[in-house]
From TrEMBL:
Keywords: Membrane, Transmembrane, Transmembrane helix, Transport. The gene is Slc35b3. Belongs to the nucleotide-sugar transporter family. SLC35B subfamily. GO terms for cellular component: endoplasmic reticulum membrane; Golgi membrane. It comes from Rhipidura dahli. This is Adenosine 3'-phospho 5'-phosphosulfate transporter 2. It is found in: Membrane. It is a multi-pass membrane protein. Pfam families: UAA. InterPro entries: SCL35B1-4/HUT1.
Length: 386
């Protein structure tokens, strides 16, 4: 607050201040203007808790939060992968991947609605337009992924899903004109070679290999590469809860798929088939959706607390274990080429993680190791002389 003695001055006050005249003094009051994000979401600072399945993770330390989220992702998604392959092992079900996705989205919407009723703040924070985009990407990711299992072995599908870096880098180069360092390029090359080698092995040993599955899972991969960053930005900007994200994105996605199946006349044959095998279809689909819902809740918590990069790293490790369990529980042709190509993909993932965290940890260079070795020898010789 400032006072002046000049009562006749009619100068305008500076930006961000309000001019009030009292008897013989001019008072300037500072006014703070909220940012755009705060104006859009006035509650953004009021809710900082991260609640997963009714458990408030904000009460725990960061290492404990990470351990809980990783344990939840591995436990539920390993069961999820087993049930997904079990459903497609039912004879005659392979053409109905989109209907399975419709049922899955329906269960997810119900689970999200139930969970949202259990929390105190039920307001929708993220705009509807953002949810429409997220729902479209989610439909592309899960629908195309489920449908590709009608043409591919499950391990091949999972290997493709591990390689999100490739479409991300291609889009960055052609759309944004980005330049990548040698580590990123090496990671993309390792993933590409591993994918090609794994696909060639699958086409050699799998009796029903179809290139259509490769196209479907590649499109799902492109959508999957975008959705994590979109979810992270939306949840951090508007501080949306996990249950809200699941409810609105999957319920809108349910409408998308239902409209698509109705227009393509794919709904009636799927309903007829599943009504003849209710336990193997709807029963497995319920458990499949339940474990998937629990898993996605922990993934969203990982994204919100630690970011999309760490979440992708954890889910990639889960996928690697899913491949091993797939070969153990389901009889399928096997060749050592699967192992070498899978390890090449894992190397690409490691290089990608290292590239994003080069400032946090550095691998020792050969020159540095040699200098360290020389210094140790000099100190040892000096101590012996003394």
């Amino acid at each position: 607050e400032k006072q002046t003695k000049d009562n006749n001055s009619t100068e305008c006050s500076e930006p961000g201040t309000m001019d009030l005249k009292f008897t013989s003094s001019r008072k300037y009051i500072s006014i703070s203007v909220p940012s755009k994000s705060q104006a859009m979401s006035p509650h953004i600072k009021s809710v900082d808790d991260v609640v997963v399945l009714g458990m408030n993770l904000s009460k725990f330390s960061k290492p404990t939060q990470f351990f809980i989220c990783v344990s939840g992702v591995f436990m539920f998604y390993l069961i999820y992968g087993y049930l997904q392959e079990l459903i497609f092992s039912v004879e005659g079900f392979k053409p109905f991947g989109w209907y399975l996705t419709l049922v899955q989205f329906g269960f997810y919407s119900i689970f999200g609605l139930i969970e949202l009723q259990l929390i105190q703040d039920k307001r929708r924070r993220i705009p509807g337009k953002t949810y429409m985009i997220i729902a479209f990407l989610t439909v592309g990711t899960m629908g195309l992924s489920n449908t590709s299992l009608g043409y591919l072995n499950y391990p091949t599908q999972v290997i493709f899903k591990c390689c999100k870096l490739i479409p991300v880098m291609i889009g960055g180069v052609f759309i944004q004109g980005k330049r990548y360092n040698i580590v990123d390029v090496s990671a993309a090359l390792c993933m590409s070679l591993g994918l090609i080698w794994f696909t060639l092995a699958d086409s050699t040993v799998a009796p029903n290999f179809n290139l259509t599955g490769v196209v479907l899972i590649s499109l799902a991969l492109c959508a999957d590469a975008v959705i994590g960053n979109v979810q992270e930005k939306a949840m951090k900007l508007h501080n949306g809860s996990n249950s809200e994200m699941v409810l609105y994105s999957y319920s809108i996605g349910f409408v998308y798929i239902l409209f698509g199946l109705t227009c393509t006349s794919g709904l009636s044959p799927a309903v007829t088939f599943c009504s003849k095998h209710p336990v193997q279809t709807y029963g497995y689909a319920f458990l499949f959706s339940l474990t998937g819902y629990f898993g996605i809740s922990f993934v969203l918590a990982l994204i919100k607390i630690f970011g999309a990069l760490l979440a992708v790293t954890v889910t990639t490790g889960r996928k690697a274990m899913t491949i091993v369990l797939s070969f153990l529980f389901f009889a399928k042709p096997f060749t050592l080429q699967y192992v070498w190509s899978g390890l090449l993909v894992v190397l690409g993932i490691f290089l990608n993680v290292y590239s994003k965290n080069m400032d946090k940890f550095k691998l020792p260079s050969l020159l540095g190791l040699w200098k360290k070795r020389v210094e140790e020898r000099k100190s040892r010789t000096l101590s012996q002389t003394v």
